[in-house]
Structure formats: C-alpha cells, structure tokens
Specification:
- The chain has 107 residues and is mainly alpha-helical.
- It contains six helices and no strands.
C-alpha cells in the first residue's frame, strides 16, 4: 500500500473544510485500508470498514465542530437563509485567520 502524500491529505482536509462529501468519500475509497486514515481520523469516529460517504459526512461534521451530520446540515441550511448568521460566520472566520482587513481594520 502506498503512503498518502501531504498534498493528498491537504486536499482531503480542504474537502472536509469545504463540506465536499463526494470528494472526501472518493479520497477514502481510493485509500481504503490505509493505516494513515485510521491514524488521522480515529478521534472523529472514522470507521475503516464503514461506508466512505458516511465517514466523509462524519469527518465534515467533526471538522466544523458538530457532533452529527444532521446538525451540520441544519446549520448550513440556516446559514444560506440568514444574512446575520452569514455576517457572523464571516467575522468569526476573519478573526480565526487574523484577517483584520475583512473586519474593516486597517493599519
């Protein structure tokens, strides 16, 4: 079994951050049986014998600090329809990444 490269792991992490179930599930299918997957995702509840789509949903929810996919999905629905929540999330992201310009601060 070949080792998963840093670039491949970075793409999987991006898929999780972006909520891309299809891409993350494909990553799991392509690397099924890799001990690296268990090492990286064991804290999320990842099941090596489990369904790739279910594992992807689980990891996406976990990446966004939700206990379950349904909670993450409900939040995403609210986010699409609530401008105040969108603004709050943008501000939280800006704070987390240190993007003062996005918050309207200039030096």
């Amino acid at each position: 079994m070949t080792e998963i490269s840093k670039e491949q792991k970075a793409l999987a992490d991006k898929a999780a951050k972006d909520g891309d179930v299809a891409l993350l599930a494909t990553f799991f299918r392509e690397h099924a049986g890799s001990p690296q997957l268990v090492e990286w995702y064991r804290h999320t509840g990842y099941q090596p014998e489990g369904n790739a789509d279910d594992n992807a949903r689980l990891i996406i929810a976990h990446t966004h600090y939700f206990d379950a996919w349904t909670s993450y999905e409900q939040f995403q629905n609210q986010l699409q329809h609530d401008p105040a929540l969108q603004q709050f999330e943008q501000a939280a992201d800006a704070i987390a990444t240190g993007d003062a310009a996005a918050l309207g601060f200039t030096r």
